[in-house]
Amino acid sequence: MLKKYFYIFYAFLLYSAVRPAVAETWTMVSEDDVPPFVSIEQGRKVGLDVDLMGAVLHEAKVEAQHRGVPWNRVMQMLDRGKADLGFPFVDTPAIRAKYILVGPYRNGRSALAGVAGTRIEFKEFGDLKRFVVATVQGYAYSPEFDTATGLRKDQTATSQLLLLKKLIAERDDLIAGDADTLKVLAEREGVARRIAFLPHLVEEGPRYVAFPKDRADKADQFRAALERVRAQGELDQILDHWRDQHADAPQVGQ
């Protein structure tokens, strides 16, 4: 009988040694409806950021549960430890004080838009104080824009789609959002000819992945995988493919 149990125990140890390890699962959060970066098609998330995150997490040998929520909840979930990582983040002093930022993994552009025919000249954001600018709850745009003196902001929108709808309904004078996302949403909603981008960007720069301060080990693991994917050229391949597909991105210059 002891011999029988010995063989069973030995077989269990052998099985445990050779079976593949179960991949670690992380919870990552972002907005759902921010094309071309994240959107839902046939029940699954697709987009540039989905591809970029997928490549890095695959390299890190990590599986991910991707939850799509409004941006203010992205930050709440990170703050409460309900998510391991969130994206995309602009690097500001306030954001860096709250989270561990890893990256950059791509660049982004924030722009101002008004109704078609809008002609507004300004040198600094304070010059826009006679206008109401709608922004998304919780978004960080740039230190200059976020702290601009006298700039009147409507911060009731929880998504960029709602920004667009508020502009079309003329509830606000201007909206501030991602240039590429606003363009794609306007085309999807059939209102592309009814909006116009102002000639000055709110901000243009790198985008980062944010980890809670107590997830430093995961941040280091992600950082190492990101650098390997970058060194292998896979990151550039994904970005180049996206640029080829979006050569008609809105021309908004500084």
UniProtKB/TrEMBL annotation:
Record bears the keyword Signal: yes
Domain Solute-binding protein family 3/N-terminal, residue spans: 25-246
Keyword field: Signal
Recorded superkingdom: Bacteria
Signal peptide: 1-23
Protein name: Amino acid ABC transporter substrate-binding protein
Organism: Aliidongia dinghuensis
